[in-house]
């Protein structure tokens, strides 16, 4: 598991939960507020984990309440949502044509996206702090 992912209180487990510790010094909530694509992919990963754990009703409810509104706002999100929800059609998702969504590489991609956003956020904060010091 990538180190920043661990340090930020994020989990890379079968049951993805967003933040365990909202006071994490590494993760800033503004990262999700300013990056709708990252937020969507985190939500998509949560949906994938619900499907993997065969929580079908919960997955459908989550997709309708959390992801469908984002799909209405963004065509690429809608296409990714449709692709992810298609997993529900298969009895054995491990042998379906979309099984790459269930692969560890999908989790790692999401983790890497989170880490990149954290690093970008931290570098902006550092630059902002340097500018403040220089101006004062």
From TrEMBL:
PROSITE patterns of this UniProt entry? CTLH
Record-annotated CTLH domain positions: 31-58
Q: What Pfam families is this protein classified in?
A: CTLH
By its UniProt entry, which SMART domains does this protein fall under?
CRA
Under the heading InterPro entries, the entry gives:
CRA_dom, CTLH/CRA, CTLH_C, Ubq-SigPath_Reg
Q: Which residues form the signal peptide?
A: none
This one is known as: CTLH domain-containing protein
Q: Which organism is it from?
A: Gossypium stocksii
């Amino acid at each position: 598991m990538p180190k920043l992912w661990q340090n930020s209180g994020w989990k890379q487990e079968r049951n993805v939960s967003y933040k365990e510790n909202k006071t994490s010094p590494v993760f800033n909530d503004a990262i999700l507020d300013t990056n709708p694509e990252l937020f969507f992919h985190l939500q998509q990963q949560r949906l994938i984990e619900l499907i993997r754990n065969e929580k079908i009703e919960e997955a459908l409810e989550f997709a309708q309440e959390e992801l469908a509104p984002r799909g209405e706002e963004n065509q690429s999100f809608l296409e990714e949502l449709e692709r992810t929800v298609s997993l529900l059609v298969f009895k054995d998702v491990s042998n379906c044509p979309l099984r790459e969504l269930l692969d560890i590489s999908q989790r790692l991609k999401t983790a890497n996206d989170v880490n990149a956003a954290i690093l970008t956020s931290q570098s902006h904060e550092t630059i902002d702090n340097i500018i403040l010091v220089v101006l004062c």
